[in-house]
Write a structure and sequence with these properties.
Helices cover 41% and strands 20% of the residues. It is α/β, with parallel strands linked by helices. The strands form two sheets. Strands 1, 2, 3, 4, 5 and 6 form a six-stranded parallel beta sheet that branches. A two-stranded antiparallel ribbon has the order 7-8.
């Protein structure tokens, strides 16, 4: 099974990337064919339309997402929405090639507000791509991350549980 972990914050020192690197390390321990797309790297180009030429990092990210069976998506909340960089990334994906994939999500915010709104927006995006969304998203506040690591044990356990459950859903769907 192919897994892609997406860190959806474009900020260089993003706490979202800390959270999603934790998810990546755990997912990789469960499934060796796991890749990380970190939008903090700043290599994904702004979408300019179909038929345009894009850099190698952008093409690779698009191919990795399209080829993956499982998407583990992490995003910060910016102005009551997920990041525009994450939305930009999905402009490259052909919805005709994504039906039946499975996705889990982790959402990070500075306070306890807006989580279900952003979960709904991401779920709607996934629905357009005909991707099955794990309904049990992980909501974390920035307090769970200190010294460049997910320091809250409860947060660690919830992230692991999201990965495990999402992989299990994907595995069950593949058996059918």
């Amino acid at each position: 099974m192919k897994v892609v972990v997406i860190s959806g914050s474009p900020r260089k020192n993003a706490l979202t990337q800390v959270m999603m690197k934790y998810v990546y390390d755990y997912a990789k321990s469960k499934n060796q064919d796991t890749k990380l797309i970190n939008l903090s790297d700043g290599q994904i180009e702004c979408y300019r339309g179909y038929g345009e030429e894009y850099n190698e990092a952008t093409k690779t990210a698009s191919d990795d997402i399209t080829d993956a069976d499982v998407w583990l998506i992490g995003t910060p909340i910016y102005n009551s929405f997920f990041s525009s960089a994450l939305k930009n990334l999905f402009e490259y994906i052909n919805y005709k090639k994504t039906a039946g994939k499975v996705s889990g999500m982790a959402i990070l915010a500075s306070g306890n507000i807006g989580f279900t709104d952003v979960q709904t927006l991401i779920t709607q995006l996934l629905s357009y791509f005909r991707v099955v969304a794990n309904p049990k998203a992980v909501f974390l506040t920035t307090e769970a991350i200190t010294d460049n690591s997910v320091s809250d044990v409860n947060a660690q356990n919830r992230l692991k549980e999201m990965v495990d459950e999402t992989l299990e859903i994907a595995s069950k769907l593949r058996q059918d």
